[in-house]
Every structure is written in C-alpha cells, then in structure tokens.
Amino acid sequence: MIKVDIEIKLKTYHDRQLLKIKKQFTTGSITKILGPSGSGKTTLLKMIAGLASPKNGTIVVDGITWFDAERKINLSPQKRHTGFVFQSYALFPNMTVQQHLEYGTTDADWIKRLVKLGQLDKFIDHKPDHLSGGQQQRLAILRALAIKPKLLLMDEPFSALDSKMKTKLIAELKPLIKQLGITTIIVSHNLQELELFEGEVMDFEGLS
Amino acid sequence: MDLSPIWLTLKLAGITTLLLLLVGLPFAWWLSRGRSFIKLIIEAIITMPLVLPPSVLGFYLLLAFSPQHGLGKWLHDTFDVQLVFSFPGLILASVIYSMPFMVGPVKSALQQLPASLAEASYTLGKTEWQTFRYVLLPNIKPSLLTAAVLTFAHTLGEFGVVLMIGGNIPGVTRVASIAVYDSVEKMDYASANNYSLILFSITFILVMAVFIFNKYQAKGPLA
Fold it and tell me: What is the rounded average pLDDT for all residues in chain A?
C-alpha cells in the first residue's frame, strides 16, 4: 500500500499554486492519472520517485516512510527502487539497447525477456539515435522494468506508439505487471490512450 | 637549435592537462549542480585568469609560493618543496592559470544535458559517481575533448605567469614562449622564428583536430 499525503508547490505562469494530494494506491493496482498539462501530474510522479521533494506531507510505502517533511525523512531515489518512464524517454545517447538494460540489471534472462517484450531483438546493438520514436519509447519502458520495480511510474508512456503497437505492448505488459505484482501509476492527458488498462482513474483537473 | 624548451613546454602542457582532467572534471560537475553563493564566488575566482593580466596573477602566485611567506614558507619548511623557479611551481601555476579552460566548457556541457538523464540513472539505483562516470561524462565527449585541447594549447602559449614564477632557467623553466622572447632579446630572430613556427604548427594542428572531431560528432551518431 502506498499512502501519499502531500502538498506540492506548483509554479504557474502568474504565481505559485499549492496542490494538496491525499491518495492511497493499493499494492499491485493500476492507477491512471489524468489532467491537463501543468496540473502537477509529472511532479507527483517525481515526488514519489524521490526526484523532487514535496513542500509538506508524507509518503509511506508498505509501512516504510519514504518522505516525511516534519521528521525530515527523504529517501534517495536509489533507495526507493521505482521504475520510472520519463515523458522525454531520457535514454542515454551513449548506450545501446542492450547496454541500457544491462545498466539496470545483470540478469541476462530477464534482459532477453524484456527485449522480446519490446520487440527490440533486431535493434539490440542500436543506440537511441538509430531507433524510431516508438522503439525509443519501448526501450524507456523496458529500462524501467529492468530493475524489477515494485512501483512503476509512467509519464505519458505510450504517446509515440501507433495504435497497433500500443495494443500489443499493453497486452504483453499487463500480465507482466501482474506477475511481478507491480503497483503502477500511469500519467496521461489522454483518457483514450489508457483505455486498454483497467484501473482506477484519478483526475487532476480541479484539484487544489 | 636547442629543442629542450619545446619538450619542456609539451611536458608542462601534458601534465597540466592531465591534472586538470583529474581535478577540473569533478570540480566542473560540482559547479554544474545547483546554485549557491559560495559556488558563485568560487566560479568567479576560477574565471579570473581569463581576464586578469598574466603578470598580475604571476605576481600574486610569486608571493604565495615564496619560501619567505605563507603557503610557500610552509611547503618549504614542512616538505622542503620550493615552488618558485622550479618545474613543479610552473605546473601548479599552469593548473591555476588554465583552470577556466577546462572547467568552463565541461561545466556548460554538463548543464546542457537534460536533468532527466541523471534522474533516470538514479531511479536505476546508480550512485551520483556512477551516473557521472557512465552517463554524464560519455555524453559530453566533444566538450571534454575541446576543453582538454584548449587547456593544452593555452598552456603551450603561457608567458607572463611562467616568466614570473619560473624565470628563464634552461632545462627547468625555460619553456618555448620564454625561449622566443629570450631569442628576440638576443636579436637571434632565426631561433625565435623556429620556436614560434613549432608552437604555431602544434597549436594549429590541435585546434584543427578539435574542429574536425566536433564536426564529425555533430554529423554522426553520439559515440
């Protein structure tokens, strides 16, 4: 169980807005976060991953406090062990597909399985520059899964995929997420994009 | 023609570049991460050799390294090390003088990398050092090479600081730029021309090599 009770300071064009989020994510569940650009969706993911700090509040995961503003507890991203799929992919230009996955895990069988899942077998020695947008996005997802995370945070993870590839990838991703018992939070501004995932919807529009 | 000033210059430039790669890279990395008033002051100090007359820097280094005062006295009394009019003194002065040529480009390159690269590495459980070594550093190769070559070339051309700290001791501190000056003073224009031509050629080749390498990098895939 992930318990998030935080206050986020959001910078807007004119001023700063305080966003209060109180939410529980059940272990193994899939939550779809919807909302317009700039509503704080990505910021929430980054705060859960430890890449940004909330102004106030607590984040407790399976009874372990990851963040507590009052008690000055703030676990590093390395210790939180969350799989993170960045909207910009954040792939390493110097690494091939294989090296990306090896950077996250030494489990050769797991790497093979991931490569197969993402249909990147033929591109194993390619660097991101030589991959299409869809292939890059798949690699970003595979890299996040490489560490076998207990919590998977995905920021607009399917935006660059065509509908056929999206359907296929999600169909194979879902049992994997279930098998590994990964709690998943997916951010998108497009509800249709997430239709293939069954799960609770959390709408950021109007949150304050 | 006495080639020892050329070899001494190349040795000085090589050691200075190597030391600045070791010291300057972590320093540039530290400066590139976040902002603080202390960092601002340190960066301003590092940048000073770019704008300060070399003789001014050389004068203060001469005072600092002097065995009669402060740091120089402590080094002399404790370790029996004399920095003034010695090759180690030249190295230290060159490291300080060429620091902005290494730190500046590397810091800028690191700041231009998307923050998400390091963040992705952290979420994969990698430490800051591993992230720097395996993700950040390989992705600023062109800037790294430019910084190293600029540092090397800048050290080749040092004159004011070298003259103040090292003087003109053959085989010890008489580098090529000093040899050019010395030859002109003696009206030996042929030697001055030879030293100048060698320095010019080496520097030109180095700068051309950087241009060619960077052009290739811009056209081709990130290595």
Answer: 88
Inter-chain touch A51–B119, beta carbons under 8 Å: yes
Q: What share of chain B is helix, strand, coil (3-state, %, to 5)?
A: 80, 0, 20
Residue A206 above 70 pLDDT? no
What integer is the mean pLDDT of B58-86?
87
From chain B, the residues in CB contact with A81 under 8 A are 125
Beta bridge partners of A17: A10
> Which domains does chain A possess?
21-52+78-203 (3.40.50.300)
Residues of B with Cβ-Cβ distance to A146 under 8 angstroms: 124
Query: What is the distance between the alpha carbons of residues A16 and A20, in angstroms, rounded to a whole number?
Result: 13
Point out the residue among B120, B126, B223 whose CB comes nearest to the CB of A84. Answer: B120
Whether the pLDDT of residue B73 is over 80: the answer is yes
pLDDT digits (tens, 9 = 90+) for B184-218: 999 999 999 999 999 999 999 988 888 888 776 64
Give the whole-angstrom CA distance, residue B114 versus residue B100.
Answer: 23
**Nearest to A91, CA basis, from A147, A46, A130, A48:** A130
**Domain residue spans of chain B:** 4-219
Among A80, A200, A100, smallest CA distance to A146 is for A100
Report chain A residues whose CB lies below 8 A from the CB of B113.
Answer: none
What's the confidence (pLDDT) of residue A171? 83
Q: What is the pLDDT of residue B196?
A: 95
> What is the DSSP track for A99-126?
HHHHHH---HHHHHHHHHHTT-GGGTT-
d(CA A28, CA A150) in angstroms, rounded, equals 8
CB A115 within 8 A of CB A123: no
**Mean pLDDT, residues B94-107 taken together:** 94
The DSSP bridge partners found for residue A38 are: none
d(CA B83, CA A137): 56
Nearest to B105 by CA among B172, B54, B52, B154: B154
pLDDT at res. A14: 67
B4-219: which CATH architecture? Orthogonal Bundle (1.10)
Nearest-angstrom CA–CA distance, A20 and A206: 11
